[in-house]
């Protein structure tokens, strides 16, 4: 599995425009970069498998703020239920800690998103409780605990 950067310049992402799922993600992150900026490695990535098929994506919701960074990830429909989300999450945690071993890594999920909750638990995240997210309403906030991973 490889992390493939979603670049700031749209022309550099043309090779990702082969599926509707990828185009939808590119549109989202084009807008997201305008809001939070573009600072590698704290960006978004597509994820490819061993055959170079794009199977999902993930990334950071911006560069660390107050030594904290939030991750986000998703698996494309045809690849769900195969451990892809768990691996994407693991890779994002690994990259964050390689970049800054002291950064606090967080994630948010909807309370009924049991697949994402399972992914976070498998990757050593602990639920801190419910918080109000401006975009999603009440969500569960999680924090990575390297000692439970």
UniProtKB/TrEMBL annotation:
Keywords linked to the UniProt accession: Transferase
InterPro entries in UniProt: Acyl_CoA_acyltransferase, GNAT_dom, N-acetyltransferase
Gene3D superfamilies for the chain: 3.40.630.30
A molecular-function term among this protein's GO annotations: acyltransferase activity, transferring groups other than amino-acyl groups
Residue ranges constituting the N-acetyltransferase domain according to the UniProt record: 1-147
Keyword ATP-binding: no
Designated name of the protein: GNAT family N-acetyltransferase
Provenance organism: Rhodocytophaga rosea
